[in-house]
């Protein structure tokens, strides 16, 4: 029969078993009708040089229309004519890993080889498109990845807005509940409303950084699967050769006018442990995770040095951080009152790590008191490097103090402050004007000579 929508709709449903019909236009295209009324397209044929007849299911009607079934049958017939066993390729594809299965293998690998696998896990769970988890590795194309990467910033911003709205609604509900309870217990006149404290300006978020991290993770996963010694995948990496969103390097650090309000706000912090941790982070320039997990066994008071093994540093290299006199005094004071193997022990006995966690609450209080905006904890590390550059320290010296592995990682600290650059440019401009005769050179004034004193011995001799 000629497969048309009208003809297929008019087919009778068999009482038992199933009926099969052959298309008059496309050779090898069949339609099966079961007793339950299900109509399924299939293709029957054999590969060139093979005596085995293959049957491949093309899809159910009406999801698959007759014209689409003919196109699929024509494509399969062409592959069979070239000697490709389509059924064998389909069976091989069924045994292929899905993106979700690959993630489990990849995470098991990075758990043993990286220092912070949880950050990678957070990127996977938050930003990688979940619709891809059930796809076979070969089913994810470069076009899919590019489209997903371009759409991800919008999805991230919507997710942030939804989360912020939920938090705001929760806070409003809590305030109303507290106000209702206070109204029942309160006696006398209502208290004066407290003035609203203006919120700090949040940093500008675009979602580009997170989208780039998601693309990088997908590329690393496929690279892991393509490694010949693993043999998980033999196709192409769909996440490679994509253009990343341009991201500006963060250059925020404490400026001269901001140091006084910052130190005043830190000094007023009631949590002494958090206050000391923030000061040590600023005075040593080390990363937040290392500062919070600092142990007394890593401190050498005789040499005034903080020794970090390669297992604790980001680049895997052992590092010795010198302790300035201010940092030394803070640690010495805490050593005399120590109660734990950690320099900054946790305040709760339920802590899993034994040391303090991320100082979000204390940092927020310090920012509110100081009035500073767009300053994050990692900017303390950047502040030390920028002030070293301000003082004329070389990139090698700054990189050594911050344990940078490459000069490129240190180069940003040399451009954070404009004063040394302005001074250098001013000197060059003065030299050009002086060479052109436009600006007078500095006059050298000879100081008057003092009369030479003659000793008594010399005067008697004379």
Which terms would index this structure?
single chain; 462 residues; alpha+beta; Double Stranded RNA Binding Domain; hpI Integrase, Chain A; 3 domains; four-stranded antiparallel beta sheet; three-stranded antiparallel beta sheet; 7 strands; 8% strand
If you had to describe this structure to a student in words, what would you say it looks like?
The protein is α+β, with helices and mostly antiparallel strands and 462 residues long. It folds into 3 domains: 5-94, Integrase, DNA-binding domain (Double Stranded RNA Binding Domain, 2-Layer Sandwich); 101-183 and 201-226, no CATH class; 256-415, Intergrase catalytic core (hpI Integrase, Chain A, Orthogonal Bundle). The chain contains 17 helices and 7 strands. The strands form 2 sheets. It has a 4-stranded antiparallel β-sheet, covered by helices on one side. A hairpin with a 6-residue loop joins strand 3 (39-46) and strand 4. The longest helix is centred in the middle third of the chain and has 44 residues, at 142-185. The model has no long low-confidence stretch (mean pLDDT 79).
């Amino acid at each position: 029969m000629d497969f048309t929508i009208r003809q297929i709709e008019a087919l009778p449903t068999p009482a038992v078993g199933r009926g099969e019909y052959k298309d008059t236009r496309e050779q090898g295209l069949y339609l099966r009708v079961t007793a339950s009324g299900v109509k399924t397209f299939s293709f029957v044929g054999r590969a060139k040089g093979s005596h085995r007849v293959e049957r491949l299911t093309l899809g159910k009607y009406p999801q698959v229309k007759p014209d689409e079934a003919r196109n699929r049958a024509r494509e399969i017939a062409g592959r069979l004519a070239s000697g490709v066993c389509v059924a064998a390729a389909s069976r091989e594809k069924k045994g292929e890993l899905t993106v979700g299965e690959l993630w489990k293998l990849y995470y098991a690998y990075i758990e043993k080889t990286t220092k912070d696998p949880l950050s990678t896990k957070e990127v996977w769970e938050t930003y990688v498109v979940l619709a891809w988890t059930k796809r076979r590795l070969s089913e994810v194309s470069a076009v899919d990845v590019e489209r997903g990467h371009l759409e991800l910033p919008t999805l991230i911003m919507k997710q942030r807005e939804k989360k912020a709205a939920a938090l705001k609604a929760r806070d409003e509900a809590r305030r109303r509940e507290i106000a209702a309870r206070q109204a029942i217990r309160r006696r006398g006149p209502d208290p004066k409303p407290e003035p609203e404290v203006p919120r700090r300006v949040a940093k500008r978020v675009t979602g580009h950084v997170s989208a780039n991290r998601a693309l990088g993770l997908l590329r690393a996963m496929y690279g892991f699967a393509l490694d010949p010694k693993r043999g998980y995948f033999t196709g192409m990496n769909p996440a490679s050769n994509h253009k990343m969103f341009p991201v500006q390097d963060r250059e925020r650090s404490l400026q001269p006018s901001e140091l006084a309000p910052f130190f005043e706000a830190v000094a007023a912090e009631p949590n002494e442990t958090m206050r000391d941790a923030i000061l040590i982070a600023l005075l040593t320039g080390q990363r937040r995770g290392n500062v919070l997990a600092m142990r007394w066994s890593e401190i050498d008071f005789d040499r005034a040095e903080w020794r970090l093994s390669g297992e604790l540093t980001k680049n895997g290299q052992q590092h010795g951080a010198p302790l300035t006199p201010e940092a030394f005094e803070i640690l010495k004071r805490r050593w005399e009152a120590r109660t734990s193997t950690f320099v900054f022990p946790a305040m709760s006995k339920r802590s899993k790590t034994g040391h303090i966690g991320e100082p979000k609450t204390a940092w927020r209080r310090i920012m509110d008191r100081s009035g500073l905006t767009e300053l994050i904890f990692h900017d303390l590390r950047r502040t030390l490097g920028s002030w070293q550059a301000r003082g004329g320290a070389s990139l090698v010296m700054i990189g050594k103090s911050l344990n940078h592995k490459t000069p490129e990682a240190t180069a940003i600290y040399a451009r954070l402050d404009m004063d040394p650059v302005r001074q250098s440019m001013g000197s060059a401009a003065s030299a050009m004007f002086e060479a052109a005769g436009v600006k007078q050179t500095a006059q050298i004034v000879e100081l008057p000579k003092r009369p030479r004193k003659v000793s008594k011995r010399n005067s008697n001799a004379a």
